[in-house]
Specification:
alpha+beta, NE0471 N-terminal domain-like, three-stranded antiparallel beta sheet, 5 helices, elongated
């Protein structure tokens, strides 16, 4: 089996990059002043993401976030100290974690919502003694 030369590898890499569609990461770094992971795309656009909004980065220290690698022809961002990876096309769609994790974040945010109607209903319920007790299996409270 013949080995690839450096020139052949470079040519194959260039062909692969030419086939990729859409923006990819050109670079990435952590901006401690803004508490954001900044991803600069091949289009020149910069995307800033708060680590606490991203699965795998939520409890990361500043030191953990300082080391970031762009991988897979700019399709991936890797945090070696955390063993965490972000997929750039998913970031551009607002996907900051797995489906299960994202659903949990949305459910949590919905439970914290305080609309005027929800606040009024809560006050009325409080005037009536609060939430009714759940009945035991036998039907007695």
């Amino acid at each position: 089996m013949a080995e690839l030369t450096t020139a052949e590898f470079a040519a194959a890499k260039a062909r692969g990059e030419a086939r990729m569609r859409g923006p990819r990461a050109a670079s990435a770094h952590y901006d401690a002043g803004r508490n954001r992971v900044i991803v600069r795309l091949t289009t020149g656009v910069e995307l800033g993401v708060a680590p606490h909004d991203v699965e795998g980065l939520r409890h990361a220290s500043i030191e953990d976030l300082k080391v970031i690698e762009v991988e897979a022809f700019g399709l991936g961002i890797h945090f070696p100290k955390l063993d965490a990876d972000l997929y750039v096309p998913a970031l551009l769609q607002g996907v900051l974690g797995s489906k299960r994790w994202m659903a949990a974040q949305l459910g949590s945010a919905g439970g914290r919502a305080r609309s005027p109607a929800k606040a009024a209903a809560s006050r009325e319920n409080g005037k009536r003694g609060g939430r009714p007790r759940k009945l035991a299996a036998g039907g007695k409270g």
